[in-house]
């Protein structure tokens, strides 16, 4: 193939076999793979999920996306990485970018896409979102029939979270890390503590499942990728 | 294997290669496959998505789930199908049930799960939701950072839909069929017409994409699986 193409690939929630069949095929064909890395962890979690599908010849480029409140620093990183990707594609290469979960939901990919412009040939391959992974593992329903679901970041204002918990039968609370006590108090206030579960690292070896939020000790250190699912129409059975 | 197990498998949005690697493997191993069928269409869409992964020996049981307002008729169908599945599993078989999109979101599977009880060995395999499939195909972002997303059924009251469209940066409007003009008027009232796209049959041969809702003729017959994505922070470029 002489015309370059860029594939943005969602890796799903964590288990290697929860990527799509299409993603597995494309990962075996690409020549360059961009993987997001956090300097602290050293290796990219997304990369560890897909490594078994890559060809031996692939050039892996781990690139650091800063997790900072400094918008200028983030923009500079996105500009540089997008420019490097565009160069690889225009030189005729098959290029991949991997992202945890789904590429179009809470993903850095969107910031790159905005910079890559319409002149490049781009294909986005969807991935299983973290909350779908959790719902399946815990056999915990999201929403049904005429019900609705809100997907919220716990970094939002408490009033915004309260309103979502009142308005929607099902609420996914992402980015729980460091905010658990505040969220647990809010759920208790609304009478929803019995309707919620917490899971971290769903589908991975280090998966942690709390079917009862009341059982989590005050001050207990929860994993970074902790997510709470709330469904006020559904009280989970003890597992 | 002598102990039976039941696998609930999400088939994703429609393309056969958008099922997970795990789903593909399990589909090749099961001995009995339950597929939901609508009498009108004759063949099951979910079955057509996964057929290429099935073994030659598999016993396919297409079962009809009535689409009716009669709750008693629906419950009777769920009771009967769940009882038949449980019998297959307790007799030692590897049994699959397939469902469009994801098993735990707007899926009949949950009604079966409630009836199957905790004594059976059950594994739920997640699938790509329809809206994630659409977002990828249209390269249309769902939500980012501190934003939130609501997933709504257009069968909900107009006031409920209006509030979701005001409260959330991103709104997924499912079950648009037969309600398009009402929804389009609501989006126009809220100044969101330019922030919305409509797609049907995403990732399938008969995919239809309307990047501009204003371009849809009044009274135009839209496909049954039409979904609208709204993102008020993101005005899509013309494709």
Automatic annotation (TrEMBL), chains A, B:
<dbReference type="Pfam" id="PF00590">
    <property type="entry name" value="TP_methylase"/>
</dbReference>
<protein>
    <submittedName>
        <fullName>Cobalt-factor II C(20)-methyltransferase</fullName>
        <ecNumber>2.1.1.151</ecNumber>
    </submittedName>
</protein>
<dbReference type="InterPro" id="IPR003043">
    <property type="entry name" value="Uropor_MeTrfase_CS"/>
</dbReference>
<dbReference type="InterPro" id="IPR035996">
    <property type="entry name" value="4pyrrol_Methylase_sf"/>
</dbReference>
<dbReference type="InterPro" id="IPR000878">
    <property type="entry name" value="4pyrrol_Mease"/>
</dbReference>
<dbReference type="GO" id="GO:0032259">
    <property type="term" value="P:methylation"/>
</dbReference>
<dbReference type="InterPro" id="IPR006364">
    <property type="entry name" value="CobI/CbiL/CobIJ_dom"/>
</dbReference>
<dbReference type="InterPro" id="IPR014776">
    <property type="entry name" value="4pyrrole_Mease_sub2"/>
</dbReference>
<keyword id="KW-0808">Transferase</keyword>
<dbReference type="GO" id="GO:0043781">
    <property type="term" value="F:cobalt-factor II C20-methyltransferase activity"/>
</dbReference>
<comment type="similarity">
    <text>Belongs to the precorrin methyltransferase family.</text>
</comment>
<keyword id="KW-0169">Cobalamin biosynthesis</keyword>
<dbReference type="GO" id="GO:0009236">
    <property type="term" value="P:cobalamin biosynthetic process"/>
</dbReference>
<dbReference type="GO" id="GO:0030788">
    <property type="term" value="F:precorrin-2 C20-methyltransferase activity"/>
</dbReference>
<keyword id="KW-0949">S-adenosyl-L-methionine</keyword>
<keyword id="KW-0489">Methyltransferase</keyword>
<feature type="domain" description="Tetrapyrrole methylase">
    <location>
        <begin position="5"/>
        <end position="210"/>
    </location>
</feature>
<dbReference type="InterPro" id="IPR014777">
    <property type="entry name" value="4pyrrole_Mease_sub1"/>
</dbReference>
<dbReference type="InterPro" id="IPR012382">
    <property type="entry name" value="CobI/CbiL"/>
</dbReference>
<comment type="pathway">
    <text>Cofactor biosynthesis; adenosylcobalamin biosynthesis.</text>
</comment>
């Amino acid at each position: 193939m002489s015309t370059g193409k860029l594939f943005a690939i969602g890796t799903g929630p964590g288990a290697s076999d929860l990527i799509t069949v299409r993603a597995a095929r494309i990962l075996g064909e690409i020549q360059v793979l961009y993987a997001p890395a956090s300097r602290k962890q050293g290796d990219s979690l997304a990369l560890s999920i897909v490594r078994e599908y890559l060809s031996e010849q692939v050039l892996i480029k781990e690139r650091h996306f800063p997790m900072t409140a400094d918008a200028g620093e983030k923009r500079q990183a996105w500009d540089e990485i997008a420019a490097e990707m565009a160069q690889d594609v225009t030189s005729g290469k098959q290029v991949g970018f991997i992202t945890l979960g789904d590429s179009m939901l809470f993903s850095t990919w969107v910031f790159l896409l905005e910079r890559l412009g319409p002149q490049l040939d781009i294909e986005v391959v969807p991935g299983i979102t973290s909350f779908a992974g959790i719902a399946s593992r815990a056999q915990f329903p999201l929403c049904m029939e005429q019900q609705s679901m809100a997907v919220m970041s716990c970094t939002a204002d408490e009033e915004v979270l309260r309103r979502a918990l009142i308005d929607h039968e099902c609420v996914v609370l992402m980015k729980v890390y460091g905010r658990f006590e505040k969220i647990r108090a809010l759920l208790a206030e609304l009478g929803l503590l019995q309707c919620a579960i917490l899971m971290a690292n769903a589908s991975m070896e280090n998966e942690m499942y709390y079917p009862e939020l009341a059982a989590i000790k005050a001050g207990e250190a929860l994993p970074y990728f902790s997510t709470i699912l709330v469904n006020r129409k559904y009280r989970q059975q003890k597992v």
